[in-house]
Amino acid sequence: MTEARTVLIADDDRAIRTVLSQALARSGYQVRATSSAATLWRWVEDGEGDLVITDVVMPDENGLDLVPRIKRVRPELRVVVMSAQSTFATALKATQRGAFEYLPKPFDLKELLAVVERALAAPATAVVHEEGEGAPAEGEKLPLVGRSTAMQEIYRTVARLTTTDLTVMVTGESGTGKELIARALHDYGRRRSGPFVAINMAAIPRELIESELFGHERGAFTGALNRGVGRFEQAAGGTLFLDEIGDMPPEAQTRLLRVLQEGEFTTVGGRQPMKANVRIVAATHRDLRQLIRQGMFREDLFYRLNVVPIRLPPLRERIEDIPLLARHFLDRARASGLPSKQLDPEALERLKQHAWPGNARELENLMRRLAALYPQEVIGGDAVTAELAEATPMAEAEQGPGGGSLEQAVERHLASFMAAHRDGMPVRDLYERVLAEVERPLLRLALAATRGNQIKAASMLGLNRNTLRKKIRELELPVVRGLP
Ligand SMILES: Nc1ncnc2c1ncn2[C@@H]1O[C@H](COP(=O)(O)OP(=O)(O)OP(=O)(O)O)[C@@H](O)[C@H]1O
């Protein structure tokens, strides 16, 4: 590089101006810094600078409003927005208004310098994103709650992905918000005026999945009395959410792969190929790489789907989000007609200590229970402790009667199982069989504890309701009627 590039900084916080200026100067950039949006705007109009770094809240103007104005007069000028607000709405606004990058404060200087370098190296194409008709209020209404670093990173990624049609793979334990992310990608993406269609692979009988996905012709199979429209066709122009993709049977995987490769599909029993016009978001709580190793998931399909991976961390890895989420769920409970509640500090502390195997969904259910069952307006630690103990019998089971952990007990049991089979018939499908052995008593206990109430049992297990229903069928568990 021959000439030093100039970075324009606008932030009303003097300390930040100083730190940024010094760091950028040390890296060889020319720097001009100001506390006002008006001065920044004058510099931009005068044709100064190769890159802008602006804060959002400044005394004279909101930095986010400045971004589209800058892009209109100087489309090639890259803008980096930094903000202490740290909400999904801010990330979304910054990205959709044409910012090159959004950085939640506090950020580390190394990261900022890397962004500056990337911004200056990027080809000078002007990308001003259409706001589109019927654009929602840029994320204000979408309840993606949480300010942890992990969630900030997710907001940034999701915001950026709303300006593309790339395939996204969302992974995370049950109840971490995978479907919510898929909806955000749709509701704020380019296809928001099209349909959002979801299909859960775990909830549909295996033999029907292909026809559910791609549709079928009349008479394609026994019982196909009419032509059936598949989800690919329903989702045309919009987003197709393939939930629990790890549960997709092999034949359907092969067919899906072909559709993704060729961009067209045919209905079951049909001949005429149709264009696939969907953005795909897939999700799973299972470890797909492990399924690949076990030969249960196609590696080539995995790479087709895993274009942009988003990993949602379990709630226990972002306990700083718990107070906000709890508040959000209590507000939601109130909006649905339940009484208004507060949590006292001890209650919050108790929530932070819990392991949350069911993640955000478990927290949501707990908040609803507390709102519904407890008369007092301010909920204390004891109420939380009592409700958590009620809902999670596994907590005690983790310390088994033998004193060892559940894992050790299972290992002992399996070791004797394997020993017993050593000389007999070759053992096949061991993984599935062993899991089914653990699954069966687990589901039975959960159903017994909830008196056969599948909704409650699903929530206790942290499983999707449909997943539980399917498993009950597969494992042929007796369905007991709930007591009144
Ligand atoms: N960050 C979040 N902010 C607000 N609500 C959230 C958040 N994460 C999850 N939720 C809420 O928690 C519940 C569970 O989320 P969601 O259904 O998206 O999880 P999931 O990962 O798709 O679960 P599963 O794998 O069991 O289908 C929903 O009611 C969702 O709105």
Automatic annotation (TrEMBL):
The keyword Transcription regulation applies. NCBIfam families: ntrC. The keyword Membrane does not apply. GO terms for biological process: regulation of DNA-templated transcription; regulation of nitrogen utilization. Gene3D superfamilies: 1.10.8.60, 3.40.50.2300, Homeodomain-like, P-loop containing nucleotide triphosphate hydrolases. SMART domains: AAA, REC. It comes from the Bacteria. Keywords: Activator, ATP-binding, Cytoplasm, DNA-binding, Nitrogen fixation, Nucleotide-binding, Phosphoprotein, Repressor, Transcription, Transcription regulation, Two-component regulatory system. This is DNA-binding transcriptional regulator NtrC. Residues 6-120 form the Response regulatory domain. It comes from Plastoroseomonas arctica. It holds the Pfam family Sigma54_activat. Member of the two-component regulatory system NtrB/NtrC, which controls expression of the nitrogen-regulated (ntr) genes in response to nitrogen limitation. Phosphorylated NtrC binds directly to DNA and stimulates the formation of open promoter-sigma54-RNA polymerase complexes. GO terms for cellular component: cytoplasm.
